[in-house]
Specification:
Number of helices: 5
Family: Belongs to the TMEM179 family.
Membrane topology: Multi-pass membrane protein
Number of strands: 2
Keywords: Membrane, Transmembrane, Transmembrane helix
Strand order of the largest sheet: 1-2
Mean pLDDT: 82
Helix content: over 70%
Radius of gyration: 26 Å
Pfam families: Claudin_TMEM179-179B
Strand content: under 5%
Number of domains: 1
Subcellular location: Membrane
Order of helices and strands: HEEHHHH
Low-confidence stretches: 1-7
Distance between the termini: 36 Å
Length: 220
């Protein structure tokens, strides 16, 4: 029983650390994507296409739906809030020297699974969308971010979009790693609780069996 308690304490400490990292990494998606939407005047370059105008060399964009960027931004905000709340919960449990219940561990596992699927979907969306946009500028995406002009008489500032979207892409895949690790830790804790419950039930059955056998001997 003591070994199981030590395992759950290690898992709880690991969960606290991973939730902290997840909250920080979420900001690496939230902040760059917010800057990107601001620089592009509310337009989203993910999955956007276009062509260069021969007269002035500017890039005439065919904007995709802003949903792609808003979805990524919303995902980052939701996961930041989730990770922050979970981080606080785990640190409070560590401070009190207690641990979560079986029901809480089950909820943590389901929550981590949902977050992992959400981040995986978003990571694929961002990676593919960034690739489509870079192919559309028809040159080095990093170079284009510093020299291209988007639209005629437009307030859009493309400078730094490569760094912004590159940071989002790095952040979202890093976030996926964090939530996969969170899912593994939550599943491990659930398994430990299940083993502990089975052990308690087995000990109770064994005790009742011995009590029953002792009572039978007394009668005889």
């Amino acid at each position: 029983m003591m070994s199981m308690m030590s395992i759950t304490n290690v898992v709880l400490l690991s969960q606290s650390a991973v939730y902290t990292v997840s909250a920080i990494v979420s900001l690496c998606v939230w902040i760059p994507m917010s800057l990107h939407l601001y620089s592009f005047c509310g337009h989203c370059s993910l999955y956007s296409t276009g062509q260069y105008v021969e007269e002035d060399g500017s890039f005439d964009p065919n904007w995709s739906s802003v949903f792609h960027c808003v979805f990524t931004l919303t995902t980052a905000i939701i996961l930041f809030g989730t990770a922050f709340i979970q981080m606080c919960r785990k640190f409070i449990l560590l401070y009190r020297g207690t641990d979560s219940t079986f029901l809480s561990a089950f909820v943590d596992t389901v929550l981590a699974l949902m977050a992992t699927l959400l981040v995986l979907t978003d990571a694929i969306l961002v990676t593919k969308g960034f690739s489509v946009w870079c192919q559309s500028v028809a040159q080095s995406c990093e170079t284009a971010s510093s020299v291209m002009v988007i639209g005629k008489d437009s307030d859009i500032d493309p400078k730094g979009f490569f760094l912004e979207l590159g940071s989002v892409q790095f952040g979202i895949w890093s976030l996926l790693v964090c939530w996969v690790l969170t899912l593994v830790l939550a599943s491990r804790k659930l398994f430990v609780y299940h083993e502990r419950e089975n052990m308690i039930v087995s000990m109770a059955r064994e005790r009742h069996r011995h009590i029953g056998s002792d009572y039978t001997r007394l009668e005889t």
